[in-house]
Design brief:
homodimer, alpha+beta, nine-stranded mixed β-sheet, three-stranded antiparallel β-sheet
């Protein structure tokens, strides 16, 4: 941030009174501009034992596979955002289920929240941000071509839990690409 | 947002190409400014069966009670943020435990994430954003003076789970003050 979004004046970087971190502060109107982590929300859509995944048409990681996920918007719930992303990326309707994974992606200033989901029918397609979509058997997941560590983490926990007949939630931290998973 | 934070030009509100929602777009440099929900993170610190709560010294809801909670910062995990807020507001050190509640506060463009926590000792104090702090027995919680619906929701679930000897996580949605809790 270089300019104040309220008055257009150039901002300074300093620790505001009573604060403990440097912020972008406008010397003209006094506005303090906070920058906070963004929420990426997604779901693992299941239909008759298969998982719906999409190949990304956009950067980063164009050409790699993911389940539907994206930035949460103002005015929606986590669950509504997860269902919307599934519709946008794979033209599939889902019922959002239990919480699967919460991943602190520290270096990217993101928290990823992933749910289990059930497709309401067999229909799916290819949204504008996808190159292709497919329903895969879990044993056919393209592990070397999964787009992001948080997506791989969630898929592996999904599989583990399914094998054990449970639906737990799982935390992980990723920082500069190094996985640190709490015990 | 009135001005572009990258170049200082006045922004326009329009739906960018390939998008589906109106955004603040700069007609001079082309930057699209997204606005997304913020994460508020907190914990219910327990010590020998009592809960640490603070009376707010700042608006909104100055004078009302809450457990330590606040905005997550870039560069930290949810768990680290929850522990930091506890230190800042109540000068207490905690070990963050299991996930307690995830609350979609839709009208405020916030997601609140609350954890259980255990104080590492009996010490606590009064941080600059608190008027007082106290360790209360659960039966003495000041329900009519709890600051926010999400805080009350988390405390009630904490109590219910404790009575049943479990540690589950709970979702709730609040929109314009009306509670809608998924079954």
């Amino acid at each position: 941030m270089k300019f104040c979004s309220e008055c257009g004046h150039a901002v300074e970087t300093r620790v505001p009174d009573g604060d403990h971190l440097p912020r972008s502060v406008c010397p003209a109107c006094g506005t303090v501009h906070y920058q906070n982590p963004k929420i990426v929300v997604g779901c693992v859509p299941e239909h008759e034992g298969r998982i719906l995944i999409c190949r990304r048409a956009i950067e980063p990681r164009r050409g790699y596979w993911t389940f539907p996920a994206g930035f949460m918007e103002n005015g929606e719930t986590l669950q509504a955002a997860a269902a919307r992303e599934c519709w946008e990326e794979a033209l599939a309707r889902v019922e959002i289920g239990s919480l699967l994974a919460v991943v602190n992606v520290v270096h990217a200033h993101q928290v990823h929240v992933m749910f289990r989901a059930r497709m309401t029918g067999p229909e799916f397609g290819i949204g504008p941000e996808s190159l292709e979509s497919t329903l895969v058997r879990p044993e056919d997941l393209p592990w070397p071509e999964i787009a992001f560590p948080s997506i791989e983490f969630a898929l592996r926990r999904w599989l583990d839990d399914r094998g054990r007949g449970v639906e737990q939630h799982h935390f992980a931290d990723f920082d500069r690409g190094a996985a640190r998973r709490p015990a």
